[in-house]
């Protein structure tokens, strides 16, 4: 039996949605709603901050009068084809809930727990899922256009069936599976201690799409054939690292230090490398003194089409048979680089320093 107070709140919310006098947005923050039947309710733009909806009532669409109650004994929230558009569900506990075809567009789901939830066919366009736990969720045919997934835990999530057009997906290193996170942190220790502690990172073939490595020292790491679509390395150190064959489509490597890096055969289509230093590495002896020799960065046969290399430093780099079609090389330094067989059709080379 719904209480008079909640009934009044919902009535005011309905008026608010229709922009009628006496309307007010529903706010159920910190409210005890156990056992309440919301059948037929439209909670668009409702504030359910910190809600625990794991024992909610299962609702689905009815042919005649909107939503209807299907199973009041449901152990998890189900709101198939319901509306939570713009709702504040920050910190909501929605593990194993059924939200198939629910309108969650523009909803705030930061820090929400959606482990094993069913979001098939849901509308999440513009929703904020920052720092949410999405482990094992189902997103088949889900509209996730423009969704924000900053530092979101998505272990085991298959996004192949979702529409991610314009989505902002950023995964922090600390939210990675334990083995990958520990590998990266141990590499940092290895670099900081000059090899005395930690261990060199070998992440060949690893799935690291959209991971934010910004500012992390990955010099000397091996990431051959790694999946790094949308990965961020802004301001990172990748000196002498091996990323040959890696997929770094739309990666962000602005101002990264990449002296002597191996990017041969890598896919950097539409990546951003503005002001990145991809010049030769100075080879030093055990005491840290220069030997007078250098190790060139290798980008042979790399795909850099439509890549932004504005003011990038590629001095002495091996660019043989690489693809720069449509790339922006404005102000880039390619002096002494090897460009035999490189393709530059449609590339912007204004103010660029090209090999003699």
Folded structure, characterized:
- With 356 residues, this protein is mostly loops.
- It folds into two domains: 38-168, E3 ubiquitin-protein ligase SopA (Pectate Lyase C-like); 176-356, Pectate Lyase C-like, CATH 2.160.20.80.
- Helices cover 8% and strands 9% of the residues.
- The chain is built from two helices and seven strands.
- The chain has helices at 4-17, 178-192; strands at residues 58-62, 66-71, 148-150, 168-172, 211-212, 281-284, 290-295.
- The strands form three sheets. The protein has a three-stranded parallel beta sheet with strand order 3-4-5, with no helix packed on it. Strands 1-2 form a two-stranded antiparallel ribbon. The protein has a two-stranded antiparallel sheet with strand order 6-7.
- The chain is elongated.
- The protein starts with a helix and ends in a 61-residue tail after the last strand.
- Residues 54-76 have low confidence and may be disordered.
